[in-house]
């Protein structure tokens, strides 16, 4: 019969513990094994199919209560994902997201109650200037989450790097993160400013936020 301590140890998830440790030490985490190759392939097929159906719209600045479109700031097109109407690939995606949320709430008491995710496509030549993932009239976003769905032959010269700006001992540091297919990046929404560098080849991802209240 397990003791309570043994049960807690058995319940530990090494991947999620690595994410938590990264967030505590550097406010962001880069994970290359959150999803497997088949899951990424299915999600890539899903985003391309929905793009072919012309379901995407131009991304805006601000939240849904105060949206403006500004090509000089961001150039991606997006499609919000409604968890009530999802395909098998998206079901697998949300199963893992919900499992992560449950683990974070149970172990770190983050109080994450809501989430929102969308597909994002950056056409060649587009970008997203430096910004913070919170709004003046809405500060519920706790963690930002991005999963890259680029083609398997994606190369660094294709552009579209994510740059996260951190502060180390009072000095600003730029952390450049390449959007390799399957890579997941999680970071603190209210603290870390970031940007997407100009894209030389179409850039695909799922982006979202884990929210409180």
TrEMBL record:
Provide a Gene Ontology MF annotation, just one. ferrous iron binding
Superkingdom classification of source? Bacteria
Q: Which UniProt keywords apply?
A: Dioxygenase, Iron, Metal-binding, Oxidoreductase, Vitamin C
Where in this chain does the record put each Fe2OG dioxygenase domain?
A: 108-212
Gene3D superfamilies xref list? q2cbj1_9rhob like domain
Cofactors, names only: L-ascorbate
Name of the featured protein: SM-20-related protein
Q: Which organism is it from?
A: Formosa algae
| Organism lineage string | Bacteria, Pseudomonadati, Bacteroidota, Flavobacteriia, Flavobacteriales
């Amino acid at each position: 019969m397990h003791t309570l301590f043994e049960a807690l140890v058995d319940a530990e998830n090494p991947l999620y513990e690595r994410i938590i440790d990264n967030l505590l030490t550097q406010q962001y985490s880069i994970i290359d094994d959150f999803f497997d190759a088949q899951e990424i392939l299915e999600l890539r097929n899903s985003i391309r199919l929905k793009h072919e159906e012309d379901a995407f719209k131009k991304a805006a600045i601000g939240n849904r209560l105060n949206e403006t479109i500004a090509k000089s700031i961001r150039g991606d097109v997006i499609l919000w994902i409604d968890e009530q109407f999802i395909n098998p690939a998206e079901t697998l995606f949300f199963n893992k997201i919900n499992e992560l949320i449950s683990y974070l709430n149970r172990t770190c008491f983050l109080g994450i109650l809501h989430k929102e995710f969308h597909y994002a496509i950056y056409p060649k030549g587009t970008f997203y200037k430096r910004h913070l993932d919170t709004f003046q009239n809405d500060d519920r976003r706790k963690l930002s989450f991005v999963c890259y769905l680029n083609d398997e032959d994606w190369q660094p010269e294709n552009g579209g790097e994510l740059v996260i700006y951190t502060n180390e001992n009072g000095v600003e540091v730029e952390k450049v993160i390449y959007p390799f297919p399957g890579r997941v990046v999680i970071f603190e929404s209210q603290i870390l400013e970031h940007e997407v560098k100009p894209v030389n080849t179409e850039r695909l991802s799922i982006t979202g936020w884990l929210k409180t209240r």
